[in-house]
Every structure is written in C-alpha cells, then in structure tokens.
Amino acid sequence: MFSINPFAGLAASIPPAVMQTYVVVMIVLVAAGTLFDIVHKGSAKYFFSNWRKPQKKKEVGVGELVAIGVKTAVVDVLASGEFCNAKRRVAHLLTMYGFVLHVVSTVVMVFNLSVDSMWPHLWWIGGLMVLAGGYWFWFFIRADVAAEGNSPFRVMHADLFILSLLASVTLGLLWAYLQSTVLFVLYVIATTILFGSVPWSKFAHMFFKPAAAFEKRVSEANGTVQNLPTLSRDDPEQRERHSMELLRDAPMDMGLGIKREAPRHY
Asked: What are the tens digits of pLDDT across the range 234-246?
C-alpha cells in the first residue's frame, strides 16, 4: 500500500486531466491569494518604503546581500531559527518539511500516475510528519492551551490554516488507506479550503516571514535598525529612550516572561 500511487486508482472514474487541472487551480489560488494578502495588508509597500529610507549608515554590497540571503534561508527558513522554544521549533519543522514532502509528492504522482516506489513513500512520510507536528502543536503547544489553560477544542478564525491543513492530510491518508469515496470527497473539500482560503488564513505567512527575516538582517547590516530601540537596556542611549522611567534602571533579566520559565500557572 505504501509503495502504490494512491491517485492511480482514481483514473478509472476521474480523468487524469481533471485531477491535473485541479492541482493547477490550487497552485493559482495560492499565488493569487498570497498576492492579494500582500497588497491588502500593505506588506510589500512597507518593505519597499523601508528599503528606500535615507537613513542608512552604510551601503550593503551585492556579496553581503547574497551572504545575508543564504543566512536567512539556512537559519530562519530551513532551521526555523525564530523559535526559541525547542518543542515549538521541532513541531514547526515536522509540519513544514512534512507539508513540503506531501505536496511535492502529490503533484508528482498526479501528473505521473504510473510513478511508484519512492514518491508514494514520501507522500505517506510527509503526511505523517504533518500529523505529528500539527496535532502536537494543536493539543499541547498552542499558547492559549499551554499557557492560558483554554480547551484545545476552542476554535478561532486564526486557526483556519492549521485546521484545514490537518483535515486535508488526515482525510487524505485515511482515504488512501480505506479507499472510501466519502473520505475522498471530504479530502477534496478540505484541500480546497486549505488552498482557497489563503487571503483569510495564515498560509501566506510562509512566504511573508522569510522576506521579513531578510529585511531585518539587511537593516542590521546597513545600520537602519539603529534607529529602533533594542531588546536590551545595557546601552545607555537605548535605556534613556525607554518610555517608562521606572524601567530605565530595572534589572536586565526583568521582562523575560516566557523565556524565563514555562507559563503554566493557570
């Protein structure tokens, strides 16, 4: 079962061209939804405006930009360096790499129904990685569950992406295992919601956050970040800029919050 293309059996009832068209439509929906999200929220306008600000302390050369880009890709994207919580990082990496494996192998198998061996294995492995990381995050790591004691079954609008992702992958694996028509229909519905709801979910963040990380590193390199307050108070200039006078001479470990100890006091 794990070495057989699960989409090959659909060719008898669903023409391959229909399946391939569906995949292309989902890709178009993601691209269009991401562009709409960027324009609607003004993300691109902010970055380009900030890039042109005449407050740079030095010019960053092409070589340094390339090095920053590589560092951003390796540290912030591939290793999810933004997460200081080890469990959250592992869950995110499982979900991210599992999602990439699952989607890429799906596209390959839909456009080449005769393919077997490696790609079906990757499809299953990627799907199981998504379920491991996604359900771990949903039931045990979410801030409102782990820190605030809220029920893991409490659903908000911000949960649209993770819930549609888990529904799509869960139903897809169950369909491939049980070969149920009902499960396949539900799988298609959940997948359509996942890729069609980009403007209303956090899907676009996977494209936006690497750009934000790159812009932050460039700002540090050209000096524009020096116009912003830092996270520490050891710099006298930054300490004097603090809006609350009582915090200007506060201990350096004050305000660490969740970085100091696990917030499980509910």
From this structure: 566 656 655 556 5
Is residue 195 in some structural domain?
yes
Which pLDDT score is estimated for 46? 62
Look at residue 177 and tell me if it is in a domain: yes
CA distances from 15 to 6, 7, 233 (A): 14, 11, 64
* Domain at 169, CATH number: 1.20.950
The three-class DSSP label of residue 247 is helix
Query: Which position has the token pair 């809220």?
Result: 150
Q: How many domains does the chain have?
A: 1
**Residue 136 covered by a domain:** yes
Please provide residue 265's backbone torsions phi and psi, each rounded to the nearest 5 degrees: -110, 10
* 57 domain-assigned: no
Closest to 187 (Cα-Cα) out of 159, 156, 162, 166: 166
pLDDT digits (tens, 9 = 90+) for 194-228: 999 998 888 877 777 787 788 778 777 777 665 55
Sort 123 into a burial class: Cβ within 10 Å, 0-12 / 13-18 / 19+: buried
